[in-house]
Write a structure and sequence with these properties.
An eight-stranded mixed beta barrel has the order 1-2-3-4-8-9-6-5. It contains six helices and nine strands; from the N terminus they run H-H-E-E-E-E-H-E-E-H-E-E-E-H-H. Strand 8 and strand 9 form a beta hairpin. By secondary structure, it is an alpha+beta fold. Helix content is 49%, strand content 16%.
C-alpha cells in the first residue's frame, strides 16, 4: 500500500467530521432563525391592535396608566396611550404620552412616542407619510380621552433630530406658541392648511427615522372638538396582515433543503475525489507491477550474462593452459632432438594424454644413453694408450 492510499484512509474520517460539523452549524443557525421568527411573531402578535378590542373602561381598570386611545384612520396606528412618571417605563412596546404633558391632552402640544417597528406595527407607518401620496390620502384620526372622542386632523409631516429642543419641547408656554408653530410649519416636508393657530391643541406622533440614527419622523395633527368618520373600512395599502406559523415553517424547510443540498454536494465532491485517488493508486500499482516484472526479467538476463561470462572465462583459461603445454612441449623437443634417436622421439601412436609419460620415459632413456656414450669413450682412450 502506497502513501496515497494511506492518506486517502486518513482523510475520509476528517471529511466526514467536517461535513457533520458543517451540518450541525447550519442546523443551529436554522433553529436560531426559527426562534427569532417565533419570537418576532409573538412580539407582533402582542402588539396587534386586535388584542385591545375591549371596552376602554375595562382597559383602564386593568392598567390605570392608560390615559387615551389614539387612531389614525386607514393605518395600523390604533393603540391605547399610556403615561407614566418616567418615559422609559413603556419604551419597549407601547404608545407613550410624554411624562411632562397633561394626560387629558389639554396642552398646546402633546408629544406621543412609539417604536418604528417592522410590518407597520405600532408607529411603523409614520415614515410612510414622507411620501406625498400617503400624506394626501390619510388626513384624519381619532383621540378617545376623558370618555369622549375628539377628531385629529393631520396638517404636517417633518423630520428632526432627536435632540432638537425647538421641536421636542412638550407643553410650550403661551408666549412661545406662535414662534414654535411658525418654525414647525417652515421645517415641514409636507403641510396642509387646516387653519391651525396657537390657540389650538396639537398632538405630535414621534417615531424613529430609518434614514439616520438620531433622526425622528413627526406626524402633526390638530385636535378638534368634533370627531371624523373613518373613511377606510380596511387597513391601508401597507396594512399589517397577521401571519401564521406557516412562514417560519416554510423558511425552516427551505433552509433544511439548502443545507441538505450543500452537504450532499460536498459529499459528492469528496466521493469523486476519492474515486480519482483510487484510480490513480490503481494505475500506480499497475505501473509498479510492470516495473517489478521488468526488473525481474532484467535480473534474469543479467544472471544469464554472468553465466556466459564465467563459461567464456573457463574456456579462455583452458585455451591458455593448452597453449602453455604446447609451448613447453616444443621447447623440450628442441632441446632433446639432436641427442635422442628417432625411435625415442614421440611415437606416432601416443595420444595427447600420454605426453607426460612419454616425456618421462624419454628423459630416462636419454640419461642412460649419455652414460653409455661416456663409458665407451673412456674405454677407447685407454686402449689407445
Amino acid at each position: 500500500m502506497n502513501a496515497d492510499a494511506i492518506g486517502l484512509k486518513t482523510t475520509k474520517p476528517s471529511n466526514n467530521a467536517a461535513n457533520n460539523g458543517l451540518l450541525v452549524f447550519v442546523l443551529a443557525i436554522a433553529v436560531f432563525a426559527l426562534y427569532e421568527l417565533c419570537d418576532s411573531k409573538q412580539l407582533y402578535a402582542a402588539t396587534d391592535k386586535t388584542n385591545y378590542e375591549i371596552p376602554f373602561s375595562e382597559l383602564q381598570a386593568i392598567n390605570p396608566e392608560v390615559v387615551a386611545w389614539l387612531e389614525v384612520y386607514g393605518t395600523n396606528i390604533d393603540y391605547p396611550v399610556t403615561q407614566a412618571s418616567d418615559n422609559a417605563r413603556y419604551v419597549t412596546g407601547a404608545i407613550i404620552l410624554d411624562a411632562a404633558n397633561s394626560k387629558d391632552f389639554g396642552d398646546f402640544n402633546s408629544l406621543v412616542y412609539g417604536h418604528h417597528m417592522e410590518k407597520d406595527v405600532l408607529c411603523g407607518e409614520i415614515g410612510r407619510f414622507s411620501e406625498r401620496v400617503w400624506f394626501e390620502e390619510y388626513k384624519y384620526g381619532n383621540l378617545h380621552c376623558r370618555g369622549e372622542d375628539y377628531g385629529i386632523e393631520i396638517f404636517a409631516f417633518l423630520r428632526a433630530d432627536a435632540y432638537d429642543k425647538t421641536v421636542f419641547t412638550p407643553n410650550v408656554g403661551e408666549s412661545d406658541r406662535g414662534r414654535y408653530l411658525e418654525e414647525f410649519l417652515e421645517r415641514a416636508l409636507y403641510k396642509r392648511d387646516v387653519g391651525v393657530t396657537d390657540t389650538d391643541r396639537l398632538v405630535l406622533l414621534v417615531t424613529c427615522s430609518s434614514d439616520s440614527t438620531n433622526g425622528r419622523d413627526i406626524l402633526a395633527g390638530k385636535i378638534t372638538g368634533k370627531s371624523f368618520t373613518d373613511p377606510f373600512m380596511a387597513p391601508g395599502p401597507a396594512g399589517y396582515v397577521q401571519e401564521t406559523f406557516l412562514w417560519p415553517l416554510l423558511a425552516l424547510v427551505i433552509i433544511s433543503r439548502l443545507t441538505w443540498f450543500f452537504v450532499a454536494g460536498r459529499r459528492h465532491r469528496f466521493r469523486v475525489a476519492d474515486c480519482k485517488t483510487l484510480h490513480r493508486n490503481f494505475e500506480e500499482q499497475i505501473d509498479l507491477k510492470v516495473h517489478f516484472e521488468d526488473n525481474r526479467a532484467h535480473n534474469w538476463h543479467a544472471e544469464e550474462l554472468k553465466a556466459h561470462k564465467r563459461h567464456f572465462d573457463e574456456l579462455k583459461n583452458l585455451h591458455r593452459h593448452c597453449e602453455e603445454r604446447r609451448a613447453r612441449k616444443r621447447r623440450l623437443n628442441e632441446r632433446t632432438k639432436g641427442d635422442v634417436p628417432y625411435v625415442l622421439q614421440r611415437p606416432h601412436f601416443l595420444h595427447e594424454g600420454d605426453e607426460a609419460i612419454h616425456t618421462k620415459a624419454g628423459n630416462h632413456v636419454i640419461g642412460g644413453l649419455r652414460r653409455s656414450a661416456c663409458s665407451a669413450s673412456t674405454k677407447n682412450t685407454r686402449e689407445t694408450h
